[in-house]
Structures are given as C-alpha cells and as structure tokens.
What does this fold into?
Amino acid sequence: MQETPRGQAPAPTSEPRGCLFALSQPPLMIFLGVVGCLLLAAAMHDLYFL
It folds into this structure.
C-alpha cells in the first residue's frame, strides 16, 4: 500500500472489481440458478428413477 502525505487524498486506482461484483448482478444469478436447478433435477432423476 502506498503512503500518502497528510492532507492529500489517495490517487484513484483502476483495479478490476473482481468476482464478487460479477456475482452481484441479477442476470448472472438467475442464469446460475437455472443451471443449478437443472443439474439438481438431473441428479435427482438419476438417483431415484434409474
């Protein structure tokens, strides 16, 4: 972490936001939820009906 002199605001950084920001987006969570439900349904079908 860089040291800044007193009375001076730190310079803004252009770092990527990361995975938690991406997971907070509603369309992505809906897509992952649908895929998860399909995988769960396939697993339940394999366990109980085959």
